[in-house]
Structures are given as structure tokens and as C-alpha cells.
Amino acid sequence: xxxxTFLGTSAMVPTKERNxxxxxxxxxxEGILIDCGEGTQRQMNIAGINxxxxxxxxxxxxHGDHVSGLIxxxxxxxxxxxxxxxxxxxxxxxxxxxxxxxxxxxxxNSCVFQNKVDLDIKEINLKxxxxxxxxxxxxxxxxxxxxxxxxxxxxxxxxxKRKVDMGKAGKLGLKEGPYIGKLQSGQEVMFKGKKILPDxxxxxxxxxxxxxxxxxxxxxxxIEISREADILIMESVYATNMEEKADAYKHMTAQQAAQIAxxxxxxxxxxxxxxxxxxxxxxxETNARDIFPESVCAFDxxxxxx
Amino acid sequence: xxxxTFLGTSAMVPTKERNxxxxxxxxxxEGILIDCGEGTQRQMNIAGINxxxxxxxxxxxxHGDHVSGLIxxxxxxxxxxxxxxxxxxxxxxxxxxxxxxxxxxxxxNSCVFQNKVDLDIKEINLKxxxxxxxxxxxxxxxxxxxxxxxxxxxxxxxxxKRKVDMGKAGKLGLKEGPYIGKLQSGQEVMFKGKKILPDxxxxxxxxxxxxxxxxxxxxxxxIEISREADILIMESVYATNMEEKADAYKHMTAQQAAQIAxxxxxxxxxxxxxxxxxxxxxxxETNARDIFPESVCAFDxxxxxx
Lengths: 306, 306
Description:
The structure is a homodimer.
Chain A: E1 2-8, E2 22-27, E3 30-36, H1 40-46, E4 54-58, H2 64-67, H3 70-78, H4 81-86, E5 90-97, H5 100-110, E6 117-124, E7 130-134, E8 138-145, E9 151-158, E10 161-164, H6 166-171, H7 178-184, E11 189-191, E12 194-196, H8 198-201, E13 202-205, E14 209-213, H9 220-226, E15 231-235, H10 243-248, H11 254-263, E16 269-272, H12 282-291, E17 295-297, E18 303-305
Parallel strand pairs in A: 3-4, 4-5, 5-6, 14-15, 15-16, 16-17
Antiparallel strand pairs in A: 1-2, 1-18, 2-3, 7-8, 8-9, 9-14, 10-13, 11-12
Helix pairs in contact in A: 11-12
């Protein structure tokens, strides 16, 4: 199961209804956190997310509303009782733009505590989207985008999988077992003197692509990283009529985000990171749908099953 | 008007119901914030407190659950539109234990932002309660207490005020005006050839004392700073039966807090900073009342008008 939970959908400042940025991606029980604004660990708790499941944190940039919840989360993860008993350290991979190692060290030095989490920090600086991490089941790509400080956009790409049609396989006399395993992994098998090709009994299930484009002004990298996204999560601090302000602060309007979704041929656009000036975000949603009908505005604790 | 708002009443880790430590004291519209754990600025927003009113922050110690909301609050205060227009910097006095200046600098360096708040930081190290700040209307005292890192307790002491009984003054022929002003400020006046002493027509209204004893193990300083408190706000991470654990982590049980309230002759004890193990805090409240009947457990957004 892949599930996205929006932990905070306000830009810059938390409001009564919206916390600052944090997005949790649950991939088969493993947690990937995109940004960690102040209060994220509590939002996870309220959303029923086990904070100890986080294995990867993707930091877009070091503005406070995207990172100042990191210290609380790292402390809470380190202080969990299981680790206290075994002395084992939870490992967390952290990716972020240039300066991430130094900023993280300042954060760790800002409070009195013994860090019990093993942090593996990598700084990324990429002009075109490239692989930064992969497992057997998924890969993560990143690219620089254009904000007022070094900033990254990320994509999570589930790998394609071959799925055997057990009905078709059964007709050839094949049952669960090593033959099926081989076909599933794309290899041909010899069965009762006959060669069976994987495509005869199985098909490729395309992996899903989820893209996170947070603080940025429109730029070619935004389109490149978003190509063919199943879910494109994108900032839209302002409605379309505020383009001047968006330009000044290197943010996006609903129109700009929707144009990128259209150009990148995304399937669904989810807007987030709204200015506190908007009590409701209907205007932003309407602006986006005028250009890209499959648009929706996120709200805190919204979940998307992918 | 003096009003206390509890912004977070959980120890160490936020729970669904309780955020980490933050207490807001509104003294006639001026804000004094005692500790600023992660999420405090949002709690203020939800409580309807104007974050821009904060003029003084009293930091007890540098454990994350007491300070990691500082960076968000400082950014939000600096970015308010009025300041952006005038270029004026909001001034905030910050008091904290040894190391406060260095830790604050790490916090400021952890995020990318231009600090638009003028921070006046003072480090305090006092074996007995002493004055650290005063205005015409109140004074603040502090003292070291005993936790696992340098930690302070604070008291807010409203100054006594003389109040003229206009009925009594009227009988002597005195009406609003300079004579009343003089009597109010404690001076005698000559009226129609007769000397009038302040005590004849006025009386002293005792100022209220509010004390904040957060993370600490019981120690003589806790009693000294709490003497004759009208409101004594004190940590009680654990119920009485958990004294061993409280000792180990240099915290207090309900019994220990109540004994201090009794020894200090406080009028009312308000317990806070509860371990997340307690889904309800009835046990803690009952334990405390057995020793000090005027005890109550705080909850998030509880307000006390003093």
C-alpha cells in the first residue's frame, strides 16, 4: 500500500486550520517524510502515524517552515523505549540541498540532548533530475529548482512489476512455485518440454510516480521532474491574480502550477502550501482547474491512497 | 488584567491532546512567554493570542521540548507586515540559563532567514532568588533549580498598589485631582489646613505573585522562589508512585510538588508537564490534593484569570 498524508498545508506561518509543511509517504509500512516544519511530529501523532517508521527525510530547503520540526522528531525517535533498551540507533537517511550538513549540526547544537539517531546526510545539487536513492522496489530522484535559497524537488518512482495471471498460467498446467517465481521476474521457463515466455502468462504493472515540487518559481526543472507523474504535489502559495507577489517571493500561483502539470502530462495535481491570507482555497482550486481539470487543494490530514 | 494561558502541558513529547511546554502570561496586554516548545506559535494562534504582543521570554532550560518553538515564533514576529513596512524591529528580552546565547545563535543559524527581531539575551545564574527585571508595575525574579542541565525557575511579582477609597476621601472633602494622586502614591497632603495621611483614606492592594517551577527535582530553591505564591505553576511529570523514575530523570512527582506548595505557603498549585504515559491525570491531581488541597492539573488552553 502507498499512502500520502498531508501533515501541514500552510505556507510560512501555521494557522488554526493548517500547520506548516510536512508530507508523509507510507510505502508498504516504510515512512518517507518530505519536509518537517514545526509541529510535524505532533501532526503525525494526531494522524495516527507511527513516528518511528520514518527511514528517509527529503528536505526541499532550509526555510524554517520546512525544517524546524526536525529536532523534535529526531529527539522523539531517539528516545523511544525500544532503542533505549537495546542501545540500537534508528537510522535515518536525510537528503537536502547544499548546506544541509551544517544547518543540521546547528539544529543538533541548539538543544541539550544526546542524539540517539544515526543520521546519514547527503547534500544534493543537480541541474537535471537524477537518481539519488533506490531500493528493489522504488527509486528517488531529485533536481534543483528556483527559490530564494538552494531548493530541491523530489520524485518517488515505484518500480514496474510483472504480475503473473494465475488463470492463464493454470491453463498451461503451472501452479504456485519456482516456475511462477521465474516468470514473475521476467525469465522464460521450460515446462514439460515447452518454452513459456513471461509475456504469455504475465504483464507489466507500471509503478506509480509521485512528485513533490514545493517552494519554487516556475522553471524547466519543475516540468522535467514532474513528467508523467501520477500524483504531482505542488506549491501554490497564491491564486492566479497574485503573480507579481508570487514572483517577488519566488513562489507560484495556481495558474503557474496548473500549467506545469499540463506541460508535464501529469495525471493529478494536488496543490498545497497556501498563504495564510486565504481563509478558504476555493479560488486557488478554481484557478487551477480552469487550466488542469484534475486539480485539488490539499488540507491537513488529507490522505491519498495511490 | 492578568491572565495565564497554558499552551502545552505535556512533558518531552507532544500527544494528541497536549502540546509540549509553553505558558503565556498576559499582563495588561503585554505578553510574557515562559518556555516555547515546538508548536507554541500555533497554540498561541489557536488560543487567540496575538503573537506580536510577546515582549519577554523566560527560558527555563534548553531541552528541546521547552525551546524548539523559538525559531518559528521569532520568524513569525519578524515577518509581520507592520514591521516590514516600517523597517522597525520588534524587541524581545530573553532570559535563560548559562549557554542561552550560544544555543540561540545555533537556532538562528539552523534556518535560512533574516532575523528581523531585536533579541536582548541575558544569561542568569543565581543560587538564591534575585530580581532580574522590573518595570513600574512588576518585577521578575529567577533562581537556579536542579535538573539534568542548567535550569531556572521564575517568579512574576506584581507590585503592591495603594488604592484610595473615594467614599472616605469624599467625606473629608477630597475629590479626583492632584490630592488624590498624591495620596495614591503614598504621600501625605495638607488640605484646608489639615494633614491627611495616606492610610486614612487608602489601603494597600497586594500585588499577585505567580511562580513557574518547571523541570527540576525538589530542592531548597524551589521552595524559596515559591514563597507565598498566589499561583504556583509546577511540573509534575509523574504520579506519587513513580518517585524512583522521577529521581532518575530529575523530575517531580505530584507528592513532591504538593509538599513544596505546602512548605512555601502557596495559595494555589497548578500542575503541568505530564508524562505521556498518563491518558488522564486524575491520579496526579488526587495525589497532590491529598497533601495540598488547592491543587489542580492544567490542560492545553486552560486560562487562569489572576
